[in-house]
Design brief:
Helix 2 crosses helix 3 and helix 2 packs parallel to helix 4. This protein is α+β, with helices and mostly antiparallel strands and 603 residues long. The strands form 3 sheets. Strands 3-2-1-13-9-10-11-12 form an 8-stranded mixed beta sheet. Strands 5-6-7 form a 3-stranded mixed beta sheet, covered by helices on one side. It has a two-stranded antiparallel sheet with strand order 4-8. The chain contains 20 helices and 13 strands.
Length: 603
Amino acid sequence: MPGTDESADAFREPGYTRFLIRAPSLGLCVGYAVLTAFLAAVLADYPSAGPAQFLPVLGLVFLGPALLAGLVTSPMARALGGRLSWRRSFLLAATATAVPLPVLAVERLVVFAIPAWAPPQGVFLLFLLGPVLWFRHMSLFGLSRPDHARSLPVSVVQPALAMLGVLALVPITPTLVVAGILFLVIGFLGCALLLRAADRPLRREFGVSGVSLIRPVLDHINLRDPGATAELERFFARFSIEADLRVTVVAIRSAGRTKATIVLPTVHPGPFAALGASDLPRKLTERLGPEAGMVFVPHTPCNHDLDLPTEVEVDKVGDAALRLLRSLPTPGLATAGPLVRPNPGSFARGQRLGNAVLVTVTQAPEPTDDIDFAIVDPLLHAASPGDPELALIDAHNSYVEGKGDLTYATPNAAKLRADIAAAMSAADAVATTGPFRFGVAARTDYSLRQHGIGPTGIRAWVVEAGGRTSAHVLIDGNNLILGLRAPILAALAPIVDEAEVMTTDNHIVHEVDGGINPVGERYSGEALARDVRAIVETALADLSEATAASGSADVPSARVLQPAWTQRLLTSLGDTVSVFGNALLTTYLVIVTSSLVVLQSVR
């Protein structure tokens, strides 16, 4: 079958941002500080005369300053208007201790080959402090507070303590003190150049400091700090435009109450974490409240052009959905049919529920991702009075990086429109009027870190109509790794006649490692299929006679991110990473080279 040669095992998550987003445990950070200090002391003092010479270097120049800096940095940062956790404080101290290790290793090799080139111990230990300050200030400027005057006193703590340790070990001379100060000045200037270079791409494109956004991002992700969230959403809102959105609601009622509500807004659940429309399933579920029963918020055909920049805009959509739900007729229509595909190669499957035809689209087993809203917008407004309502879902269930988007005016776009129309006709043709049965179930004890699944977990609805049962499974995540849809459907084949598995495209899952984090990356396909089957079995046990009602409403003048704005942001971030990587190495080498000049002048 096309596309089945790729599997979940072929996918590897990008892990380059893990330490930026969440530091290791405090114990590991302290252990890392002890280890790096020991390695640095061994390299700096080898070969030593014994413990009498080694231990003072270890304690006064490396380990003592690292541990004291780990203790002092966090409260000092807070006192100066910044913020740094204890874990990050010790991680920073440990990593700063490790920064001079390449220089120490090279120096040992050179001295081993040419002993006469060995520099005096005191000035060489001071020589190492420039890179330490360079790294600490670069980190604190971004992680604590983007202000040189407020961050520099915190940054200088560790190298200043190390400098005092060096001066306690060797005879103090004015030349030695001046050299130590010059090394620190060189480290600071190298850091200032690095930060200026890293800021240029975002300043040029958006007029904002990229470094200044690091702290709010971390506070939003780790603490859900309201101030940080508001700051980031203000940044996004600056680049938003007005758009007329649409929301469709399908309400399933049983025993005099709303048993389930399927909410389909033309909103993309991004940009990331819980900002704006990201985490849309949870936000809409909470907005609709208990009167909506079990709420399902599948992904609809749209892309990042329809990201909402703030929760205020999300509330507009949620309020429109709630008003629509309350306006739908009770009890609705006892009309339904089985889930059908008009032909084997169709992108669409349809099912009649009340006065709506629920159409789910996917290119699986080929890659499938976002769909330009312009492709389907005419279909959403094409129904004549009396025709069934089109309730359209993008299943978003076959992930391969960089593939599967459906763009306007392509052959697959034309095929999609034709398949949707055919699925509506096929579903309407097999629908019957009379009682149908409907059941729901959910499991929400999943975590972003362990499972890659968002707060609303895995939900399923089951319809029994026309003598057949069908199941729709909705996973709160960003796409499903290619190759996993088939085994999930196979696990459901013995208990239902037809099934489809979908994801919400919730971008909250990005905050774990800064990557896409598709479903199946962190949780095995076997476990996923087992869980889905158990949830559907629970939904089957929940079947009861039901009716359905649906409707659509416009959400005028909502603000969305500008077209292609997310691509511009990602491009600028990519440029920032590239510039930062180059500047990181360049400024490190400049600091070392400049410091060598000072070192040679005071030998």
